[in-house]
Design goal:
Blueprint (H helix, E strand, L loop, with lengths): L8 H32 L2 H14 L1 H23 L5 H19 L12
């Protein structure tokens, strides 16, 4: 589309303002695109998008839940059985007493070595 020729100063000023407005709009579109691209490559955004994609897959979701349970169980067991923990000694003593009581029952005597 060809513009009509500019014949006077008023048309020239109008055309300059139109071109400035168009240039400003293009700059804003480019700036918005750059900001959007910068935001999309942020690590947090990438992780959120990745997690969102994984949540929609049922099998992966099940595997993640099981992995989370395993990690939680390991964390609890490690903190529960840490060195120097009083609870650890108490639990081990209790478990040992229960084992001795179980083995001393008549039903389990056949598993013990004969002392005679």
């Amino acid at each position: 589309m060809k513009e009509p020729p500019i014949e006077n100063r008023i048309q020239l000023k109008k055309r300059i303002m139109e071109l400035n407005s168009l240039a400003f709009e293009q700059e804003q579109n480019i700036l918005h695109g750059v900001k959007e691209m910068y935001y999309s490559i942020q690590p947090g955004t990438l992780l959120r998008r990745w997690a969102s994609n994984l949540k929609q897959d049922g099998e992966v979701r099940h595997d993640l839940v099981n992995a989370g349970k395993d990690v939680a169980l390991n964390l609890v067991m490690n903190s529960f059985l840490s060195k120097g923990n009083l609870i650890k000694r108490g639990v081990l003593v209790f478990a040992g007493k229960q084992l001795v009581r179980l083995l001393s029952r008549k039903k389990c005597k056949k598993f013990l070595p004969n002392n005679s």
